[in-house]
Amino acid sequence: MSGVVLQGIGKRFGDVVAVDDVNLEIHDQEFLVLLGPSGCGKSTVLRMIAGLEDPTEGTIRIGARNMTDVEPKDRDIAMVFQSYALYPHMTVAKNIEFPLKSRNVPKEERAAAVKAASASLGLDELLERKPSELSGGQRQRVALARAIVRQPEAFLMDEPLSNLDAKLRVQTRAELVELQRRLHATVIYVTHDQVEAMTMGDRIAIMEAGVLQQVDAPQTVYDEPANLFVARFIGNPPMNTITGTLGREGDQLVMTTAAGAAPLPPDVAAAAARDGVELAVLGVRPEHLLIGSEGALEATVTVIESLGHERHVICHLADGEMVIVRQAADVTPPAAGSTVRVAAAPEHLHLFDAETGLRVRP
Amino acid sequence: MTEVGAAQGIDLAIEGPEPEAPRRRWFKRERREALLGLALVVPALVIFCAFIFYPFLKNFELALYRTAPFPGLPDTYVGLDQIRDVLGSSQFWNSLTITVLFAILTVPIGIGLGLGLAVLAHQQLKGVAVYRTIFSSTVATSVAVASVIFGTLFNAQVGLLPWLGVDPKIPFLENPNMVLGVFPIALVAVAGVTIWQNLGLSFILMSAGLQAVPDDLLEAAEVDGAGSWSRFRNVTLPMLSPTIFFAVIIGGIFAFQTFGQIDLLTQGGPDEKTNVLTFFIVDELRGQKNAGKAAVLAIALFVVTLTLTLFQMRFLEKRVNYER
Amino acid sequence: MSASPVPVDAALLTETPRDAVFFRQTKARRRRSLRTFGRYTLLSVLAFLVLFPIYITVVNSLLTPEQIASRPPTLFPTDPTWGTYGEAWNTGHLGEYLKNSFIMTGIIVFFQLLTATLAAYAFAFLEFPFKRLLFVVFLATLMVPFEVTIITNLNTVVDLGIYDSYLGLAIPFLATGFGAFLLRQSFLTVPRDLKDAAALDGYGHLRFLARVVVPLSRPTMAALAVFAFLSSWNQYLWPLLVTKDDKYRTVQIGLKQLRNTNIDQINVTFAGVVIAIIPLAILLLLFQKQLVRGLTAGAVKG
User: Which of C39, C53, C60 sits opposite B123 (nearest CB)?
Assistant: First the structure.
């Protein structure tokens, strides 16, 4: 097992740039999630790693060897497709055996490997069935067994959970992570679901419009989003973003918004001044906002959503921007239609340059 | 009233006279629908009965009568004798053999060529659409067109085979020799014409089948390490098996209905070496004016075609993979 | 923003110089373009072989008999003899034959569509006694080869007095089990809700059929029409039996006639062949998609 390195990877389809200058290193035995909305290029990157598409530029290394022009079958990778792509006319056993047969592995070795893979995924009783006789979850396990039977350098997974119902998805998520740990496998996992990314990945690589936005551990991505896109994409309900301008109030740098003036932490303020930021976006997560009598920002409560264990208070600022506040269920909710003051601790405030979208880093 | 109902405090007592319900016509509607349904089906049914079922059944009656050698004389009822005579004749068995040989020649080669062309034209090459149109183009030719073209090409005196340096003294269509000791050369020539003419249809059919092979299955096989030939054998062919099966059944049925080519090219000769069943039937009907014998042959044709189709469905369908 | 903030191991970068990577890429690319060239060559050779007979036909239709007989053979008409077409059309009666074919085919296509549409509607939307049995009967018609019915059909047509007429040419083909089957499948995909909505709006069955079902099934009906056109235009056996002279002869039988009267004038025969092909060639070019659909219905699942 070893890592995968993408250098300057790009892909163009005619005039359309699907992937633009992606540099990414996936460490050995890492579970890396490629996350992004539909059309962001994540599947294209995965297919290029697999060799199903050729990059227009850049190189791909798998296990320190340059694999950019190598056929998929020689790249020592295995792939789990979104639709599972099981051979419908073959039994489960033959499906799992196929990759070994293609490589002319001798019969006894094949049988042993199939047995091991099948036991690993609890498929022993299903070996003689055809895919059409299996449930969605079972089919997925067959696809996984077919992938692990060769013990490849890396596993590529293209949204493998999206065809499962919600309950099964949660269960399978945990099983996949456990499988990866057990096999000490390197996994590159593509998804548009940020919950999967947060719960499964050692690191998350977020893409948008063909460009890599940020690559970090889940908690880091959550606490320190590199730009506005990442900030809004991760987290549910999404991070609140309030536009405003930076100016001085006395000796303090202050952010003036439609809801009032928000004081900034000194290091962020200094960085903003240093970078010459004028138009900015203030970001703060719903769970970090407090509704009280003192607070820098003023908002009107429009809708209160009660979820049982918590409450989402949806407010609107004077200029129409929406702010969501998360409250525990036992806190007294404000009245709908009332005007409230909202506050947040300075360390929970994020500042983004409105023009570049980048986070202002001290 | 249930507990839930009671909990909501619903009051069931209605006051005042009951409002008048609109007129119900359920019974009449079913009757009208049934009549309409039958009426819509009747036009087609009339044609079917008059021109398919009645003629089919009438054959059985005609087969029992030996047609008079001169028109105007009555036909004699001979019962099953005529059937026995005709089906026992060497002429019939020759015809049946020739028809089967013809099918063996045209169906597998036709499907194989169509499949080969379809695979070649299925690639992502620029301008491949032009090739696809060319390969399907023989669909625009009819049996008559193909036969007239090739018939002229094969003709010894005015033909164009001399172009290619073929000895003009022994043209295909009058050659009494045999290929492989089994196939008369004339039959092979007619089969060649048929295969060419059917190429367009075979290509279109196989192309459509290829389109239906899911891309991700082929990609999975690629990642699993299968080379092009292995992918073709293990993924494409099994996925194509319904289409191939259909082509074999339909091809077989059409092969047994061959008429035009024989009429235009060989007229059943030389020496009855291309006397396929349909030509035999038409020749007896029009040429020999022997309707009784023709009827027997027609029944034989039906039985043979049906048997062949059922046989194929029984034994071949097992190997067809319908899973998706 | 183009560069991502992820540091890539510098050591790996220096391991393979850019030139080596570039060279490896062009070698692979060259291998690939050689393969592509090979593919185009193969395709072209096969295309030539398939088109060859038609090419010969067109070329020879424009040559004189001397040119045809010349050795080495004339491969391209440098001085085309267009007169052959005129002769095929007039003396060869090909113009009349074309007209007859068009009329016969027109009648058949129209009635096949009509009977198939009505029957398919009944099978798809209505309940009536013996419905299942009748559908089996419709399918059973596909099992009886046409050649088995010709003996009696000929007599019937003579008895009805329509031997050697347009009606005689068309009548056995006015209905088709295949058409009813195909259209029924298509009609079944019309959502039930539409029928109910139409009923509420006051549409009876026939209005619903004409205003909703037919427009929705237009692709399949077009496919059926093209398929019916193709198969009737190419009919050989029945027109041969049912016509006795040039008056009602169709193009396919006409070709036989043309060939027999022009044994030593192949160019005229070939001109006739070209004229016979042209309508279908136009059909194929214009309606390729519908044609494919009609021909492959039933063959491909999904």
Answer: C39
pLDDT above 60 (res A121): yes
Mean pLDDT on A334-347: 88
Q: Find residues 42-81 of chain B whose CB sits inside 8 Å of chain C.
A: 43-48, 50-56, 58-59, 62
Asked if B221 contacts B235 with a C-beta cutoff of 8 angstroms, the reply is yes
- Tell me the one-letter amino acid at C274: V
pLDDT band at B2 (very low <50, low <70, confident <90, very high): low
Q: Which residues of A2-13 are buried (b: 16+ CB within 10 A; e: fewer)?
A: bbbbbbebbbee
ipTM of the prediction greater than 0.90, yes or no: no
* Pairwise CB contact (< 8 Å): C118 & B322: no
For residue C23, list chain A residues with Cβ-Cβ distance below 8 A: none
Instruction: Compute and round to an integer the Cα radius of gyration of chain A.
Output: 25
CB distance from A87 to chain B under 8 Å?
A: yes
If you write DSSP's letter for every residue of C182-217 in order, what string do you get? HHHHHHHTS-HHHHHHHHHTT--HHHHIIIIIHHHT
Residues in A closer than 8 angstroms to C5, CB to CB, are 214-215, 226
Question: According to the model, what pLDDT value does residue C301 have?
Answer: 43
Q: How many CB pairs under 8 A join A and C?
A: 49
Tens of pLDDT, residue by residue over A228-273, are 999 999 998 999 999 888 887 776 677 888 778 887 888 888 888 8
Residue where the block lists tokens 């998360």: A326
CB contact under 8 A, A73 and B225: yes
CA distance, residue C106 to nearest chain B CA (Å): 17
Taking CB atoms and an 8 Å limit, are C240 and B128 in contact across chains?
A: no
> For A122-142, how does the pLDDT look when each residue is reduced to its tens digit (9 = 90+)?
999 999 999 989 998 999 999
- In chain B the domains, ranked by start, together with CATH numbers, are 31-77 (no CATH), 88-319 (1.10.3720.10)
pLDDT of residue A294: 79
The domains of chain C are located at 1-43, 84-296
CATH of domain C84-296: 1.10.3720.10
Residue B300, CA distances (Å) to B46, B58, B294, C172 in order: 26, 14, 10, 22
